[in-house]
Structures are given as structure tokens and as C-alpha cells.
Amino acid sequence: MADTRDAGNTRLAIIAGLTMIGIYAIQFVAARFSLREHLTATDLAALRFGGAGAVFLPIVWRSGFAPMRALGWRRALALAALAGLPYPLIINWGLTYAPAAHAAALCPASIVFFSFLLSRVFFDDGASQRRTIGVVAIIAGLLLFIGAARDGAGGVVIGDVLFIGSGLMFSAYAVLVRLWRTDPVTATAAVVLLSCLPLPVLYLLAPSQIHAAAATEIASQIVIQGILAGAAAMFLYTYIVRQLGPQTASLFLPGIPIATVIVGMAVLGETPMAVQFAAIAIMAAGMAFSAVGRRAASVSLSAPASGGS
Predict the structure, then answer these.
(1) Are the beta carbons of 155 and 97 closer than 8 angstroms?
(2) Which of 13-27, 75-89, 137-151, 272-286 has the lowest mean pLDDT?
(3) How far is residue 61's CA from residue 53's CA, in Å, rounded to a whole number?
(4) What's the rounded Cα separation, in Å, for the pair 29 and 257?
(5) How far apart are CA 185 and CA 151, in angstroms?
(6) How many CB atoms neighbour CB 304 within 10 A?
(7) Which residues does 309 contact at the CB level (< 8 Å), separation at least 6?
(8) Distance between CA 56 and CA 192 in Å, rounded?
(9) What is the pLDDT of residues 207-250, one digit of tens each?
């Protein structure tokens, strides 16, 4: 009975992972589409946190604000500065210069790379040979991707640098969450709700074209950027981590750039160069290799205890 239940949970986790990949692919492509048409980077960020805030506020209201008060304002503001409103602003700004496939490839790859680097610095985490090889492959893919972009439009390089910078920000956010032993749901709720506070001021001061967009486009972006990417994807990833563990959960990351390339080609007509296809493949392989390396290390560490019992 337990084996049947575990198999069912594994299947549901795999379905959740594939759904998460689809959400992120649609998010990048939808953002790029609206940025080319009507909306600005600020508009998309506002719609993202407006939608996510509508999801999280009732949850926080029902569970109470005690966990957020325990986190503290300084820590909450630091987390919000790294993974809150500035984070999608930088990604959306990059999408005004570079195609969606660039964001989908460089953001996850840079998160894996900087997480590896910062974990070594702040926690002295050991790294298996397999994981080190994976990270080296990611670096090679990043350099190849950016090198290919330099031969094209100059603005694309700006977008690529912004995507890599966003990866550094999210990695620093993850380090602080681990350093402060912050509950993931509390951290996410704090980031979302604090990011909603400056939205009225941002709307008044930042450039906006939201009045030029159709109501259907605005509603679609609220659903895609806010409810799906801002809330549902986080829930799905948390579910995968609980069912399969963080090492296995990270195996889904390489699917994001691949799915985004396919959707971007179909919807936006943006086809990467052959060398960029190769770079995406190298980065995806590096992410998968690194994740498998973490999983293998985890299994090897737990094996002696299992054998001794």
C-alpha cells in the first residue's frame, strides 16, 4: 500500500514539474510579447505582484502575521529587495533587449552557478566532482551564449547581462533564506506583500503604457505573471521538493529553456542561432549534471546510516 502511495505521489510530482516548466515558458514568452507590443517592464512587474498579492493576502490574513513579525522588518526588506519588485523589473527590462529564450536559458543557469559559488563562500559546502563538472559546463554555455550575442545586436548583450544579474540576486535571496532559517512560505509571502506596497508610487512615477493595452491583455498578464508564475509555480516547486527532495526537484530546471525556445519559436517567431542552440544544450546538460551530482552526493551520505541500522 505504501509503495502504491509513493508511486502515486511521484507521478503527481512529475506532473507538477512538467506543469511548472510550462508556466515559466509561457511567462517568459508572454512577457516578451507584451513588452514588444504595449506594456512596459514596470507594468508587468506591477501586474505580477498585484496578482500574487491577491493570492497571498488571504492566506496570510487567515494564518496570521506572527510568522512575518518573527522574521523582522530588516530581514523581510532585504529578501524583498533581492527577490521582490526589483527582480522581475530587471528580467522584464532585459526582455526589452533580448529574446525570451535568452531569459529562460541564462536565468536558471546563472542561479545554479551563483548558488554553487555563494554556498561555497558562506557555508563552506563541499562539491562533488560531478557537480563541479556541471557548473563548469554552465559557465562554458553562458560564455558561448553571450559571445554569440555579441556578434548580433548590441542591445542583446545588455539583456543577457541583466538576466545573469537577476540570477545573482535570486541566489543571494536563497542564501539569506538558508542563513536565517526562514520558512519558505513566510519568506515568499513577505516578499510578495512588501513588493505590493510601492506599486501605487511606481505607477505614478515610472513610465507606463498600460492604458494602451487591451483589457484582455492586462487580465492575461495578471493570470500568467501573478497567479501562475508568482503563486502557482512556487506552490508546485514546494510540492515537488516535499515529494522528491530538492536535489531531484532541481532536475526540472533544464526543461525551462528548452520549452521556452519551442514556445518562443511558435508564438514570437524568435529562433536562436545554431551556436545558441548549442549553448542552451550545454547549459541544460550542466544543470542536469549538477543536480544529479547533488542527488548522488545526498544518497552516498545517507547510505552508511542505512546500512548500519
Answers:
(1) yes
(2) 137-151
(3) 12
(4) 11
(5) 43
(6) 9
(7) none
(8) 8
(9) 888 888 889 999 999 999 888 988 888 778 777 876 776 556 66
